[in-house]
TrEMBL record:
It holds the Pfam family AMP-binding. The keyword Nucleotide-binding applies. The keyword Protein biosynthesis does not apply. It comes from Branchiostoma floridae (Florida lancelet). Belongs to the ATP-dependent AMP-binding enzyme family. This is long-chain-fatty-acid--CoA ligase. The gene is LOC118427473. The chain crosses the membrane at residues 37-60. GO terms for biological process: long-chain fatty acid metabolic process; long-chain fatty-acyl-CoA metabolic process; neuron differentiation.
């Protein structure tokens, strides 16, 4: 590891920059004997000198102190050195989200705002295994301007008022990410209708729970989800109106079969209602900073989802901190929106983009790239058409991109593979030392960059830890910084974000300018602020972005949120350590720490992070029990690599189910993972001793992972209970 990637190292080690400086000095000494030759190569030497200076500046910036504990005590709260006083707003005059929107409309009225691709055709494609996949061909993006969207917001809000919706009464959203989702959200913010968000992939029990607990009478959804709501229609007695967004394929919505007390309307009908003379001039009661903006139901990874109450001032504060870490955000950028808007990362990112005049083109995980599963072969994915400059991504999506590219490299023949590896290794050393390779960027890495449109200048990763391998891959091949963030729904997604000039990996950055962070001793896990070389403990966040608590759940609110020292704090349950430059590293999680029979602690997330980048692994869940002396693993294998392994073993079958149930193949995969674990320097007791190959992919629709692809451990444990019992010999 070079000196710039180790914040604790004070001793300088040789770097690419030092070597380059020495070479330049040597060349100058040689050329001094020949003035004409010196004059001829002077432009090249100047370019090299500029590169040396720029690299030196980047290295110096990467090593700077970013946050400090307030009184020098490692147990005290850390604050960003850039803002000793916590920042509460993005713009002084905008203390609510509707004011942010009004400001943006005034500045960017005729500019592009929200874009959606036109569906040209749709067809069924039969796979070799008999499964039928929907394939689409999409056209260009069609754009609504800020003024267009603002007109729709006013019409929709007045239409809702005509249907009996009152300020400070909840409106519920159960829909997939799209432009109409954001139009509805901005309507709720403007008219002071608290927006209740529920993940579209939640099960029926969780959906009914959220609707009933929020007491919403007006529910928004998209036409494709109407059948799902119909299944719980008899269990949601307070709902009066279900308002649907038209299907993207223009198919008629299935509006029949709902109880008589529920009226089904299209979003267009409600907007038209708001333009009528008798409704158009109803007075608007705007929100104040302490009013509820959102009740965001979590993904329910540990049971029924909890509703997090987010005030306008909370979201404003959180976005102020996040936007501070995105230099140059403005109308020249384009953002691609495809993650669930019911997730605080995507919602705050999109609202921030709109506030700065950055247009949003909508996509989905199934249509994101040319290789996405729903894109017909030979046609363009959304990123190729939109060519965004900014995007957010959860680590599982970046991991998939990494594995896809590396698979293609390995298939390209020995010469191409060798050339890529040499170029990759060369650029990796330069990137780690603050330099770059413009020629390689425009040649060898150009096809890789084109996967996401070729213009990405910055990526934001959140929702789960991002491996150092994947982060460096994105840096090298996509030629852009990857800002790794840490935050929770309860903190409006804000907490920390790495800075563009931070050349390290594996960390989540310093506290944002909107909040402070302290570590609290966790004696049971053996983490204290007195630990060496770094203070460690439970991560606790305080600041204006800390939300109001859990909706109708005072007991859980009292456990996780506390008023201390005149500040409001949220106890995250995550374990972290602060490095000398004030950057935070997530090292554990209370709920992921399991004590084995012999007393050793296994961090499930740590083991999963070490193993998941192996090409054989598409997904992995490590399981351990306190009455057992070893851990086990549930592994979703990669189709291609598992079949290649089975061919080498000369197994008689190539049927997927049979392969996943083959005990010899299980043992062979376990050997591979044991090797990976040892290379990652896992302790013996941390390495899974047995595993189950799972033939079923884990998607949000299965209920085994959240919409952000976090593992639902309880659901996985229940789903694979018989396999777990077998692996433990019971």
């Amino acid at each position: 590891m070079s000196q710039c990637t180790d914040p604790k190292s004070k001793k300088a080690t040789p770097t690419t920059m030092h070597m380059l400086s020495a070479h330049v000095a040597g060349v100058l000494q040689y050329l001094s004997a020949s003035p004409l030759l010196l004059l001829a190569v002077l432009p090249l030497i100047s370019l090299l000198l500029v590169s040396v200076v720029l690299a030196a500046i980047k290295l110096a910036m990467s090593r700077r102190i970013r946050a400090r504990p307030q009184d020098g005590n490692p147990a005290a709260p850390y604050r960003s050195v850039d803002s000793p006083e916590l920042k509460t707003m993005m713009f002084e005059e905008c203390d609510t989200i509707d004011k942010l929107w009004s400001r943006a409309v005034g500045l960017y009225a005729t500019k592009k705002c929200l874009g959606t691709r036109e569906l040209l055709s749709e067809e069924d494609e039969v796979q070799p295994n008999g499964k039928v996949f929907k394939k689409v061909i999409l056209g260009e993006y069609k754009w609504q301007t800020y003024t267009d969207v603002d007109r729709r917001i006013v019409s929709l809000g007045q239409g809702l008022a005509a249907l009996g919706q009152k300020p400070r009464n909840n409106v519920l959203m159960l829909a997939e990410t799209r432009a109409d989702w954001m139009v509805t959200a901005q309507t709720c913010f403007k008219f002071n209708y608290p927006l209740v968000t529920i993940y579209a992939t939640l099960g029926e029990e969780a959906i009914a729970h959220g609707i009933n607990e929020s007491e919403a009478t007006h529910v928004f959804t998209n036409a494709e989800l109407l059948p799902k709501i119909k299944n719980v229609a008899g269990k949601i007695p307070k709902v009066q109106y279900i308002i649907y967004m038209d299907a993207l394929n223009n198919k008629p919505a299935a509006t029949e079969g709902f109880p008589a007390g529920i009226q089904i309307l299209s979003m267009a009908q409600v907007e038209e209602m708001g333009t009528r003379a008798e409704n158009a001039n109803r007075p608007i009661q705007p929100p104040v900073p302490d009013d509820l903006a959102v009740i965001m139901y979590t993904s329910g990874s540990t049971g029924l989802p909890k509703g997090v109450m987010i005030a306008h001032r909370n979201l404003i504060g959180g976005m102020a901190g996040q936007c501070d870490r995105i230099p140059g955000l403005g109308p020249k950028d384009t953002y691609i929106g495809y993650l669930p808007l019911a997730h605080v990362l995507e919602l705050s990112a999109e609202i921030s983009c709109l506030a700065f005049g950055t247009p949003i083109g909508y996509s989905s995980p199934l249509t994101l790239s040319d290789q996405s599963s729903k894109i017909k072969r030979g046609s363009k994915g959304d990123a190729s058409v939109l060519r965004p400059t900014l995007m957010a991504a959860v680590p599982v999506i970046m991991d998939r991109i990494y594995k896809t590219v590396m698979d293609k490299v390995n298939e390209g023949g020995k010469w191409k593979k060798a050339m890529f590896n040499v170029a990759y290794g060369y650029k990796l050393k330069l990137v780690e030392n603050g330099s770059d390779t413009p020629l390689l960027n425009r040649s060898l890495f150009k096809p890789v960059r084109s996967i996401l449109g070729g213009k990405i200048r910055m990526m934001l990763s959140g929702g789960a830890p991002l491996s150092a391998t994947t982060q460096r891959f994105m840096n090298v091949c996509f030629c852009c910084p990857v800002l790794q963030g840490y935050g929770l729904t309860e903190t409006c997604g804000a907490g920390t974000v790495t800075e563009v000039d931070d050349l390290t990996t594996g960390r989540v950055g310093a506290p944002l300018i909107c909040n402070e962070i302290k570590l609290v001793d966790w004696d049971e896990g053996g983490y204290t602020t007195e630990d060496k070389p770094y203070p460690r403990g439970e991560i606790v966040l305080g600041g204006p972005n800390i939300t109001m608590g859990y909706y109708k759940n005072p007991q859980q609110t009292a456990e996780d949120f506390r008023e201390e020292g005149g500040n409001r704090w949220f106890y995250t349950g995550d374990i972290g350590e602060f490095h000398p430059d004030g950057c935070l590293k997530i090292i554990d999680r209370k709920k992921d720490l399991v004590k084995l029979q012999a007393g050793e602690y296994v961090s499930l997330g740590k083991v999963e992070a070490a193993l998941k980048n192996n090409s054989l692994v598409d997904n992995i869940c490590v399981y351990a029990s306190s009455d057992q002396h070893y851990a086990i693993a549930l592994v979703v294998p990669n189709h291609k690599h598992l079949k290649n392994l089975s061919a080498k073993m000369e197994l008689k079958t190539d049927q997927w189910e049979e392969l996943c149930n083959d005990p010899d193949l299980e043992k062979e995969v376990l050997k591979v993972l044991h090797k990976v674990a040892k290379e990652a320097k896992l302790e013996r007791f941390e390495i899974p001793q047995k595993l189950r190959l799972c033939s079923e992919s884990w998607t949000p629709d299965t209920g085994l992972v959240t919409d952000a692809f976090k593992l639902k451990r309880k659901n996985l444990q229940s789903h694979y209970s018989q396999d777990i019992a077998r692996l433990y010999g019971s």
